[in-house]
Amino acid sequence: MFVVRFRSMQADGMALFPFILVKQPNPGPTLLNHERIHLRQQAELGILPFYVWYVVEYLIRRWQYRDHYTAYRNISFEREAFANDQNLAYLKTRTFWQFWHYLTNDGL
Q1: Kindly report the CA angle at 72 between 3 and 48, in degrees rounded to 5?
Q2: What angle do CA 80, 85, 89 make, to 5 degrees?
Q3: Is this prediction's pTM over 0.70?
């Protein structure tokens, strides 16, 4: 994993295997953990399939919720990352394809 700063990014962070792109010079541990969760998802699913799935699920959620932010927060990959980004030990116990459990509206 490599952390690279991009000042002009709109988001605070973004995972693009094997890089974590960040907006601020000193990202906090929660942001880095959030993006590390995405790196693990990408490694499990494959980089291209991850992004295809991400975009397709975003479009479905956008149609479902009619709102960008709500759609984004309900993508299974994001639901897993937001639910666990404060648990800095999460990746040590995370099971394979754990994001799958966040596909439903109920999550875990």
Answers
A1: 60
A2: 105
A3: yes
Calpha distance 23→42 (Å, rounded): 21
What is the chain's Cα-based Rg?
A: 13
Query: pLDDT tens digits, residue range 35-90?
Result: 999 999 999 999 999 999 999 999 999 999 999 999 999 999 999 999 999 999 99
DSSP string, 10-66: SSSEEEETTEEEESSSS--HHHHHHHHHHHHHHHHH-HHHHHHHHHHHHHHHHHHHS
Contact between 42 and 50 under an 8 Å Cβ cutoff? The reply is: yes
Dihedral angle computed from the Cα positions of residues 81, 23, 30 and 64, in that order, rounded to the nearest 10 degrees: -30
